Amino acid sequence: MDLLQELETARQRLLQQVNTEFDMLAEKVRLAELASAHGEEPRPVDVGTVLPLGENTRLFKGTKPLKLIFPDQSQVFVTSWKQVVAEVLRRCLAQPGMEAALRREAGNITGRSRVLLAESAEGMRSPVPLAEGLYMESHFDTETLLSVLTRRILGQIGYDYSGIRVSIRRT
Question: Cα angle at 144 between 117 and 77, to 5 degrees?
């Protein structure tokens, strides 16, 4: 990845974090104004439930991700499940030996009608570019997407995702 691309990626990540924080603050203000209009005391706003990424994927249905929390306590703000997948796989690729392991599995991890991890985006409905010549299909509902990520891909290559947590909110 060249320097300009890295800068653009960092800029997008920072803008996303700022937007998420402002959205949460705006929601607090909206709820406080609503409570005040009805003569009620404002209630604290739920800023998100935190669940392990390896949790039963059914629990993530009907939710939106707010941020990823990694074992080293670093946090990345996200707004979609596709971003969750991209960030987790970006961290995975940064680990020694993991890129080679993913490339070995490219073309071998398949769904009913599509390849889930491949060297080309050809035939994918919604590919997530992971690295040069490495893509993951992401055209799934939340439950299936997270199951494909954790069990079919990360589990297959032996990547430990047990310490990764996701802050979510119900939609």
Answer: 85
| pLDDT-based confidence at residue 28 (cuts at 50, 70, 90) | low
Query: Quick one: which H or E segment has residue 128?
Result: strand 127-131
Q: Which two tokens stand for residue 28?
A: 């607090």
CA pair distance 79, 17, nearest whole angstrom: 9
Q: What is the DSSP letter of 135?
A: E
Strands of 75-77's sheet, edge to edge? Answer: 49-52, 165-170, 63-69, 75-77
Using N-to-C axis directions, what is the helix angle for 98-105 and 81-94, rounded to 10°?
Answer: 120
β-bridge mates for residue 65, sequence order? 168
C-alpha to C-alpha distance for 110 and 128, rounded to whole angstroms: 15
**Bridge partners of residue 52, in order along the sequence:** 165
pTM score, two decimals?
Answer: 0.73
Given strand 127-131, what is the order of strands in its sheet? Answer: 117-118, 134-137, 127-131
**Closest to 148 (Cα-Cα) out of 105, 119, 97, 91:** 105
Beta strand residue intervals within the chain, DSSP E: 49-52, 63-69, 75-77, 117-118, 127-131, 134-137, 165-170
Q: What count of residues does the chain have? A: 171
Using the predicted structure, report yes or no on whether residue 152 has a pLDDT greater than 80: yes
Distance of alpha carbon 82 from alpha carbon 84, whole angstroms: 5
